[in-house]
Amino acid sequence: MEKREHFSKLGHVLVAAGSAVGLGNIWKFPTLAGQNGGGIFILFYLFFVLVVGVPLILGESTIGRYAQKGPVDAYHNIAAECGQKGFSLKFWTFLGFTGAFANFIILCYYSVIAGWILQYCIKVLLVPLNEMDMALFGASISSYVTPIVYALVFLAVTIYIDVKGITAGVEKCSKFLMPLLIVLLIVCAVCSLSLPGSIEGVKYMLIPNTNNAVNAGSMGYVALAALGQCFFSLSLGTGQMITLGSYLGKDSKLASQSYGIPAVDTGVALLAGFVTLPAVFAVASVTGIDPTSQTGPGMLMYALPQSLYAAFGSTFGTIIAFLMFLLVCFAALTSTTSMVTVTASYLEEYKHVEHRKATIGIGLGVAVVSVICSLSNTPLLDSITFGGMNIQDSLDWFISNLLMPFGAFFMCVFIGYIWKAQNAIKEITNDGTVKFSWATGFKWIMMVVDPLIILVVFLSGIGILKF
Ligand code: TRP
After folding, report:
1. What's the count of helices (H) and strands (E) in the chain, helices before strands?
2. How far is residue 275's CA from residue 268's CA, in Å, rounded to a whole number?
3. Alpha carbon 177 to chain centroid distance?
4. Percent helix, percent strand, percent coil in the chain, to nearest 5
């Protein structure tokens, strides 16, 4: 087996946390929580992080560390080792491939959203904070050229970092930028919470109300949105953690390394929720508009300037808002560079394409699709919809609610029935030398609990099962 360079313990945690914490936490989580009934969505979300997220991070990392390969080779090699042949072997290899594919597609629309944030870094310097409303956001993303330029600039920086192989260097910066982001999120949350009327937003977030879920679609719909978000936010079901695990040394402690990531990731998501939702409710209490009608993708770009303006006035508020958007771009960058790594590792290991070529090729492919995504917010392409969603949102729905649950479901089946849980546990405990207190729980979670949860939530989310 070819030897890999290995991460230090801190290095792995940094890269994994860098991948996990991104737009999913700061932008998507509050948006989805707002649209899916608030407290009820968050309750589902926390449950899924604990029962599905943590075991899956551990499972994926274990596969990666054992095989010392990216997802395609990892599934292929372990399946072959376990005597799988013919169609079965092809299927498991295909599973690894779907992960690489998912990362590619995510990158396409993720760059567009990161481009919006980048655009707002500049916008906060040009537009008075108190004039940054939803209409400005709508106009910013639906113009033809500007959002594309920002998306491509963001993508180019990502590809540059990956081509140069300086992802590790970038992650090192996250050692101080991530804590700074968290501090600023806390400051912004305090500002948002101090607005008169914000308490309604806090109630909306913290009190689970089943009526809200029914209004949002159905309980199943909300549960699937929460599960999809759990996968998306923790970068699961697409081989991301397999790739990262493959850079772990055999003496690393797998179990203890996989608790910190969900903890930080969930903390950041909740904080971002407290930054945005209370501010939106506070402003709505003044204007008299139904606040839930205001919960959409532009929430962050609206709530942040409004609450910072109210708390600090225009000069100091602008500085904080600028810093905040910049740090969110940085968090997005540590996610996109890791998405490129997964897709590139497929091309490099499986198709033997050279690193530079693979990375640039991916960049060009992503650029084309992200232009289409960006245009799907403009009159040119916004009439093309699937289930009421434009191309960009449909891609996100397809990945988060279909492909990721698919990848996660079969990863559990793979560990539970092909590789066998006891072999995974042997790897987790470094041949029985490291303590793993919930080994039996892990076995049942992989074999029964998580496949069942994923299946039931999926079927009810798409309306086949009704509760
Ligand atoms: N988890 C990241 C976020 O919350 C997004 C992300 C990075 C991702 N790598 C991924 C999502 C791989 C799915 C798969 O922003």
Report:
1. 22, 0
2. 10
3. 19
4. 80, 0, 20
Specify the higher pLDDT residue, 138 or 463: 138
Pocket probe mutation, ligand 1, options 15, 19, 396, max atoms within 8 Å of Cβ: 19
Buried b (16+ CB within 10 A) or exposed e, 48-83: bbeebbbbbbbbbbbbbbbbbbbbbbbbbbbbeebe
Give residue 385's pLDDT band: very low, low, confident or very high (50, 70, 90). Answer: very high
Reference 465, options 224, 225, 231, 229; nearest CA is 224
Tell me if 106 CB under 6 Å of ligand 1. Answer: yes
Dist CA 273 CA 32 (whole Å): 10
Token pair 């929580």 is at which residue? 33
> With contact defined as beta carbons under 8 Å apart, do 314 and 130 qualify?
yes
How far, in whole angstroms, is CA 31 from its chain's centroid? Answer: 13
What radius of gyration, in Å, describes the C-alpha atoms of the chain?
Answer: 21
Q: Taking the alpha carbons of 97, 155, 368, 28 in that order, is the dihedral positive or negative?
A: positive
- Measured CA to CA, the distance from residue 259 to residue 15 in angstroms comes to 14
**Could you give the CA distance from residue 32 to residue 75 in angstroms, rounded to a whole number?**
32
| pTM as predicted | 0.94
Q: Which residues 6+ apart lie within 8 Å of 215 measured at CB?
A: 37
Report whether 19 contacts 235 (CB < 8 A).
Answer: yes
Q: Which element (helix H / strand E) includes 207?
A: none
Smallest Cα–Cα separation from 174: which of 261, 242, 105, 96? Answer: 261
Q: Which residues contact 326 (CB under 8 A, 6 or more apart)?
A: 121
Ligand 1 mutation pick, 116, 181, 230, 235, max ligand atoms within 8 A of CB: 235
CB of 401 shorter than 6 A to ligand 1: no
pLDDT band at 1 (very low <50, low <70, confident <90, very high): very low
Label residue 432 exposed, middle or buried (CB < 10 Å: 0-12, 13-18, 19+). exposed
| pLDDT band of 467, cuts 50, 70, 90 | low
**DSSP 3-state assignment of 389?**
strand
Task: Please work out whether the CB of residue 238 comes within 6 Å of at least one atom of ligand 1.
Answer: yes
Kindly give the number of the ligand 1 atom that is closest to the alpha carbon of 20.
1
**Taking a C-beta distance cutoff of 8 angstroms, is the pair 37, 216 a contact?**
yes
Is the per-residue pLDDT at 169 higher than 80?
no
Which atom of ligand 1 is least distant from the CA of 238? Answer: 14
**Hey, which of 101, 233, 333, 345 would you mutate to test ligand 1's pocket, going by the most ligand atoms within 8 Å of its Cβ?**
233
pLDDT, one tens digit per residue, over 53-85 is: 999 999 999 999 999 998 999 999 999 999 999
- Give pLDDT tens digits for 84-96: 999 999 999 999 9
CA–CA distance, 131 with 124 (Å, rounded to integer): 10
